[in-house]
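Q: Got a minute? One more chain.
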Amino acid sequence: MTAQLLGFVAACLAVIVVPGPDLVLLLRNAAGAGRRGAAATAAGIMLGNAVLAAAAVAGLTALLTGSQLLYSALRLGGAAYLVYLGVRALADVVRGGRAPATAGPATATAPSRAFRQGLVSNLLNPKVAAFYLSLFPQFALPGMPVLAQHALLAGLFWGLALLWYVVVVAVLGRVQAVLRRRRVRRGVSGVSGVVLVGLGAALALRD
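A: Always. Here it is, folded:
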């Protein structure tokens, strides 16, 4: 069992630390609203992870990935939301460029909005549901019922993801003074906007 758990932890870490839409959104909100924005975004992401993990344990995500129509609808919805967030980030760059040099952030993201963005971005990512279904069956824990195994693995993945985002938010908090500088903020918003639009387009075009 120890070898299986260690293998699962290694697989989880490989998935968690690879940059994706959630991390891009987190960086964008950190630049726009500092540590509070980053923490709120991470909280939304983690709530989304908890919901999807519970759905996977209950077998609900199997229904999603088993239905081409439902999966495509979620994929297109997630793609549209990523493009929407990317366009908003690019619009912030344009508005920031027109603002006076002494002006504050063009559109400082409120923590409540950052939380919703993190939550919706995570829930509308069909790859997360597919990840749970593809990873869990590869790790069998002897002597445990299947439901208990999946619950344990889901909880372990959630805990590792939480630890990762705690570290990321702490690091961003250390450098928030730099991130809040006008040029840096506009640069982060511009790059994150382009990346989010690209990720959304790639998700929409993916079969």
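A: DSSP finds nine helices and no strands in the chain.
Q: Perfect, thanks.
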